[in-house]
Amino acid sequence: MAAPLPDAVVVDVLRRVDRLLTPLATRLGRPPTLPREQRNRWWAEQVSKVAAGVSAAPRFAGKLADLLPLQNTVGTAVQSLVVLGVAGEHDVTAPAERVSLLARVLLGRDLPAARVESLLARSAGTYVEGTLGPREERRGLRGAGRTLWRAARLLNRIDDALDARPKGGLAARALSNLPVVGVAGGYLAEREALRRAAGRAADLLEGAVRA
What we know:
With 211 residues, the protein is mostly helical. 67% of the residues lie in helices and 0% in strands. It has 9 helices and no strands. It has helices at residues 7-28, 36-56, 70-89, 95-107, 113-122, 129-132, 140-155, 170-175, 182-210. Helix 2 runs antiparallel to helix 9 (182-210), helix 3 packs across helix 7 and helix 4 packs across helix 5 (113-122). The radius of gyration is 16 Å and the shape is globular. Residues 59-69, 125-138 and 171-176 have low confidence and may be disordered.
């Protein structure tokens, strides 16, 4: 069994993902007139319609997708976008809190914000433009695709930990193992997984507020 990934490695990767995807989540936004109780649902339902297609695309390869890092990394990148969107709805602006939320929702890893903050302080300023890419490439749909792809490549560094991310139903996941038609099962599985990721993020944030 592989040794658990050190906290410092996880925090480094998730902070880079946060810096990449939070601006994209902000640009996507949602209708400003929606009441608070419907905002999380918007991220889970509306964004997932498009995002699930992106994360399900590797399923054209059927079971082969599981032999590559593609499915987990792309799927986790899209889930990260939705989780950060929900975080924005709850006015979570501190990087340490967003990274902590990503770790809990996507990796099932309890990394308190205080622990994340101490690790961020050690590596402050080490990744800016090199991670984000040229500013002009971060605009439009093509730029969004590039941003998600960069996030997936970053997440490949912690691929062993990504199996803990939210998953779809067993039936859809079974269908996703078939070549070609697996994309339909992959879409259904990833869309359900995105709803679960959004719901888990909202539950954690609302629980923290009540506490």
